[in-house]
Design brief:
By secondary structure, the chain is mostly helical. It contains 3 helices and no strands.
């Protein structure tokens, strides 16, 4: 299991709260354009919390750019 930093935990919790809010809104009869942006942004936040923040990813990208030049 991956260990999250404090920032990743906060973003994950905000995403989960947003998804729950959007789901409750859909159940309560909100219009599509009222709940979908909240749902979309919240699911994006959940995915963002799982992005790796290791520097090794950046080094690999920089080396590929240097080879292409």
């Amino acid at each position: 299991m991956k260990k999250f930093t404090t920032h990743q935990k906060v973003v994950l919790i905000i995403g989960i709260v947003g998804v729950v809010t959007a789901f409750i809104g859909k159940v309560n009869g909100w219009e599509y354009m009222e709940f979908f942006p909240i749902f979309y942004a919240s699911t994006s936040m959940i995915w963002i919390s799982f992005i790796s923040n290791k520097k090794s990813c950046r080094k690999a990208l920089k080396s590929k750019e240097a080879q292409n030049s």
